[in-house]
Design a protein that fits this description.
Number of helices: 7
Largest sheet: 4 strands, mixed
Number of strands: 4
Helix content: 40-55%
Strand content: 5-15%
Structural class: alpha+beta
Order of helices and strands: EHEEEHHHHHH
Radius of gyration: 16 Å
Oligomer: single chain
Shape: globular
CATH topology of the domain at 74-190: Glutathione S-transferase Yfyf (Class Pi), Chain A, domain 2
Length: 214
């Protein structure tokens, strides 16, 4: 059995779970006991151990090419990597860390332990998200997905972040129909099933979290 040591609300961990699902790989996920470790950690059937998102991405794309998630076409590949980098860095720093990492129990994100969420930080994340949604909506409306017609790793990465935000009801879906329709398609994919089944003690998801049509 392939093993994944992960954190439930860490977007990198959620992305690895989506990649494995898209590639139809059966994994056995375990919530990390030590949230300060270099997570996620993936161990393949042959014992190969990969620590951290990029090592796992490289391993899965290289060893399971039957379902490629980074296109071979140069233009689409460039756009996929551009959006992937933007999601992990800009979106992650300005939105996810300000909202999810404040609201979630730190043992499920790896964030430093704190007494109470900082509402000023959360409000900043909410404002950044509202400003980003029109750009994201316009992109997926014109292309179908972030990099083009096909679903790529860039879409999975952004959906991983959205799924963590949506668990806490933090995405204002009503202000952009295009991004809402895109996310509906994303969470309807079979790879999303394990994410939609996530539940953590003391922090239940919003009622619509697992609903495919909101």
């Amino acid at each position: 059995m392939r093993h994944l040591t992960h954190l439930v609300f860490q977007p990198a961990s959620r992305l690895v779970r989506l990649i494995a699902g898209e590639k139809r790989l059966v994994i056995d996920p375990h919530t990390a006991d030590d949230a300060t470790a270099h997570l996620p950690v993936f161990v393949d059937l042959d014992g190969t151990r990969c620590e951290g998102l990029w090592a796992i991405v490289d391993h899965l794309e290289g060893n399971y090419p039957e379902v490629p998630l980074i296109p071979e076409d140069a233009a689409e590949r460039g756009e996929t990597l551009r959006w992937l980098d933007w999601t992990v860095t800009v979106f992650g720093d300005q939105v996810t860390r300000r909202i999810v990492y404040e609201k979630a129990n730190p043992r499920f994100t790896g964030a430093p332990t704190r007494s109470t969420p900082d509402m000023n930080v959360i409000r900043g994340g909410r404002q950044a998200l509202r400003e980003m949604l029109p750009v994201l909506g316009k992109t997926v409306e014109e292309r179908g997905n972030l990099a083009g017609r096909l679903c790529t790793m860039a879409d999975l990465a952004l959906a991983a972040h959205f799924s963590a935000l949506d668990y806490f009801g933090e995405v204002p879906w009503d202000i952009n129909a295009a991004i809402r329709e895109w996310y509906t398609r994303m969470k309807s994919r079979p790879s999303f099933r394990s994410l939609l089944a996530d539940r953590v003690p003391g922090q239940p998801p919003m009622a619509h979290y697992a609903e495919l049509d909101f």
